Amino acid sequence: MFALVVNDIVKLKRTLVLLVCLAAPLCAGAFPLMVMLNHPGDKPWVQVLGEGAAVWAYFLLPMAVTALTVLVAQIEHGPRMWNHLLSLPVNRGRLFAAKIVVTLGLVLLMCLVLYAVLYGAVIAGAALIPALRSAAIRNGAIPSPAC
Q1: Domain definitions of the chain by residue range
Q2: Which of 18, 28, 61, 126 is 20 to 30 A from 100, alpha carbon to alpha carbon?
Q3: pTM for the model
Q4: N-term to C-term CA, the chain
Q5: CA 92 from chain center: how many Å?
Q6: Distance separating alpha carbons of residues 76 and 8, to the nearest angstrom
Q7: What Å distances lie between residue 115 and 29, 98, 123, 131, CA to CA?
Q8: Contact between 24 and 65 (Cβ < 8 Å)
Q9: Count of alpha carbons within 13 Å of 84, Cβ hemisphere only?
Q10: pLDDT, tens only, 100-145
Q11: At residue 121, what are phi and psi to the nearest 5 degrees?
């Protein structure tokens, strides 16, 4: 099973998968940063983070998962490799399970990138806007400077 997962990861090397895995969370993280820069102090940072997570959960995550599954399947479908893969002396369930494991790993990677980008947006917004910085320090989003 491990060899099948590694094989699928190697097949993804020259595809658009990494671009999708980075672009979708960056778009979801750019939204809160733009809101904080255009309307400083209007909303607390927790609400802005919630809005960014909502954009991710309701729109970008389903679209990104769809794109990822299409890209993973396209690798085998493009050169008509399904017949070859399914004729190998490997259980068919393991082949499909390896593709599912790879796709779930990529989704996990996207969620981790989103977490880093959203909190990076709060820290960047707090660094650029003094009123937001004091509110973020007060709410514990960023550490207070040592005096």
Answers
A1: 2-138
A2: 28
A3: 0.78
A4: 54
A5: 29
A6: 10
A7: 9, 26, 12, 23
A8: no
A9: 7
A10: 999 999 999 999 999 898 888 777 777 777 666 666 666 666 666 6
A11: -65, -40
